[in-house]
What does this fold into?
Amino acid sequence: MANEILIVGSVALDSVKTPFGEVKEALGGSATYASYSASFFTSVRLVGVIGEDFPKEHIGLLKDKGIHIEGLQVAKGKTFRWAGSYEYDLNEAHTLATELNVFETFKPKIPAEYKKSDFVFLANIDPDLQLSVLDQVEKPKLVACDTMNLWIRIKPDALKKVIKRVDFLFINEGEARQFANTSSLVKAGRILQSWGPKHVVIKKGEHGALLFGQNTFFAAPAFPLEDVYDPTGAGDTFAGGFFGYVAQQGGDISDVTLRRAVVFGTAMASFTVEKFSLERLKTLTMEQISSRVRILKELSHFDQP
It folds into this structure.
């Protein structure tokens, strides 16, 4: 299948508690959410690392979704684990524990066939690892990356080297302000763009997303939900849906396609938060995705007087 996306990042077991419930050692990780989301639109090649204790049913779930896992390394030891909690402000996660385990010594090895992938998404991992992936791939059409506040704080120079080499930077609003050293998201987006990426997408959680393009600026609302159970992985799901849609369109980066990509990513993220882990995504259909995209279009449309 053409238009394959190579996705490199973390595969984890998450323990999450919110005011609406709790799960222990559920499937998580930046690459997991992004891959599952992108797989609704195009072929996905996942590269990550798991321990010997990684549940077989999770492997089965990824395979059943058609995600290629030949690049999923199994290392001696335990799988990466993260534990966190949310209060009623679900925009902010409180990390309770991080056990890197096999992820601590992870060095992405890109299989020969994967190196020729048309699209590369560097999910949230150490920017030095992201650079090592970029050094291994062969002339992809488009490259995107995500990051987090930790790397902005402790490895800003390496992160700047990464974003200089990508076409899309995904970043949340707090991280954008932190990295660009400004309170204005519009200024932050333009500053980040000036550092190399052609497009910057700022994720604003329940307040939607902003797209800064070469010749465009677009603001999309979030899908209004009555029930939100767990926002973990929503940003990764958004990025996977966005980039998956762009890949499905053959890498078209026209204004029309990118605006649609933002809305498809928004729809994907809205499903993720309705249940814990990937539980809602497991039962999701393209018909449901398209329906939610149509509703988002209607919600934000108006006729000029």
The CA atoms of residues 14 and 25 lie 5 Å apart. The longest helix spans residues 255-272. Residues 5-300 form a domain with the UDP-N-acetylmuramoyl-L-alanine:D-glutamate ligase fold (CATH 3.40.1190.20). The chain has one domain: 5-300.
